[in-house]
Amino acid sequence: MREVGIVGIGHTKFGRLDYDLVDIMAWSSLEALKDAGIEGGIDQVFVANMGAGAVNNQTGIASALVSRIFLEPAMAETVENGPASGASAVKCGYLAIAAGMADTVLVTGGERMRETTGWKATDFVATLTHPDAEYAYGLTLPAYGGMFTRAYMERHGLTEKHLAMIAVKAHRNAEKNPFAHIEETASIDGIWDGPHREVVNPVMADPLRLYDLCPVSDGAASVVLTAMETAGRFKKKPIRIAGIGQATDTHCVFNREDLLDLKAVRLAAERAYAMAGIGPKEISLAELHDAFLILEVAESEEVGFFPKGEAKKAIERGETEIAGRIPINTSGGLKAKGHPVGATGVSQIHEIVKQLRGEAEEGRRVKNPRYGLAVNFGGFGNNVVATILAKE
Amino acid sequence: MPTTTELYAVDRNVYAFRCPECGALYYPAPMVCRKCRNRRDPSVTVYPDFEKVPLGGPCRLLTWTRIYALPEGIDRPSLAFGVVEFTNGIRAVGVLMTEKPKTGALLDARAGLVRELVGRDCYGLQLFDPSP
Ligand SMILES: [Zn+2]
């Protein structure tokens, strides 16, 4: 198998974008090609998207993207793997190059969710739950987020204030990220201690509050992958894909022996570490899929950064801040950078590349990182992809 | 042949499914028994098929939430969900009908109309305080 590296990255701003989905994806794709110093020569395109058919009434997105930016006759497919579509598409790109089917691959994840109402956007994501045992009840992903949060708090003593502290960190990082959806500062005084908490930060899925949930965003992110053996012909030094791990878990969350056990996260990370030949201690920074802030907490434990139940101490000590022992969600995370579902996994990898190259903006740049981990979480943990990138 | 959701609506009930070969109980229905690999017939016409076992009665609340952004087809200011475990070990999600839910509380699950979609009634479990 050939080694694979990332030689180009591109990103749109996340938020509300008033142009069509394929244009959104075309923009980040062209940015990634420009970053790689190429205009064509792409053998294969993988597009990550979850909702084009349901939300935008458009299908065959990969073919549409190829044609909009004149990459024909490149091979092209759309990868739909729920909220983990992005990292799955990068995995497909890796496999195509490693196997020798392609030398250079463009991976673009994109979503346009704000075309519809907030509820419809939530509802389309909820279609990934079990049709009669979950969806029929009107159960949403935020509802599972709320139930998971309550179970975690009751077992491990995490408080709503810990979550507020993570929200403040996410906003602080996002403020310095030009692509982030959320641009406003958040302070503990404003969202937690202040007199107007119930107005500013109301309960949405008890005990989760507004500031504990990600926004509904439009946006796209892209990466250009190539075989490490020929990566020298590109403008920038490649960032190597050192490990990829993936695992699945029960469709219905309630059928897991322990409701708090995110087994697929743990297994995906273990598989990625094994492939990379490293452990959690070698990781310099991580992008963890925090659609609900509790997931940053639980995933940071499952991937081995902290023992179970102890992430709260790390939060109190500031260990996950930019200058901390293991900076988490330096981009602002899904929580503040935004969560255009199909784009998210690619965007996480975009951020790790940016950090490993030393190109992240002042104030959110991690010092001398060597390895970065991205965890892209599909369903409510029923399909998880972990990717480890290395600075060579 | 009805889907499981339609079956629930016709019967106004919610079922777990028992493997006729080895007796293992499942909710929701799998296509194959994990224990003995006996396959369920999804058309529900050919014998042997998985036996419908009405789901309900005493259960314990494992965790819960109350949401304020409500789905279509639900006519209330807020909606509470819980995950419960029955004495036979089967777990399910239900709509909480109690005012003050508490993790660990004993509840009584009954099948009822949980959501009305266009042209489609959704039957599911409603979770009540146990009757005295
Ligand atoms: Zn059986």
Written overview of the protein:
The complex is a heterodimer of chains A (392) and B (132). Chain A is an alpha/beta fold and 392 residues long. Chain A has a domain at 4-117 and 216-233: Peroxisomal Thiolase, Chain A, domain 1 (3-Layer(aba) Sandwich), CATH 3.40.47. Helices cover 37% and strands 19% of the residues of chain A. In chain A, the strands form two sheets. Chain A has a nine-stranded mixed beta sheet, sandwiched between helices. In chain A, helix 1 packs across helix 3 and helix 4 (85-98) packs across helix 14 (341-357). The mean pLDDT of chain A is 96. With 132 residues, chain B is mainly β. Chain B folds into two domains: 11-54; 56-128, OB fold (Dihydrolipoamide Acetyltransferase, E2P), CATH 2.40.50. In chain B, a hairpin with a 4-residue loop joins strand 5 (79-86) and strand 6 (91-96). Chain B is globular. Chain B starts with a helix and ends with a strand. The A-B interface holds A 118-119, 122-123, 126, 130-134, 136-140, 142-143, 145-151, 154, 202-208, 252-255, 259 and B 3-5, 8, 27-28, 62-74, 79-83, 91-95, 103, 114-115, 122-124. Bound molecules: zinc ion. Zinc ion binds at residues 19, 21-22, 24, 33, 35-36, 38 of chain B.
Strands of the widest sheet of chain B, in order across it, are: 4-5-6-8-7
Q: What is the mean pLDDT of chain B?
A: 90
Mean pLDDT of chain A: 96
Task: Indicate the structural class of chain B.
Answer: mainly beta
* Helix and strand element order of chain A: EHEHHEHEHHHHHEEEEHEHHHHEE
- Return Rg of chain A in Å: 19 Å
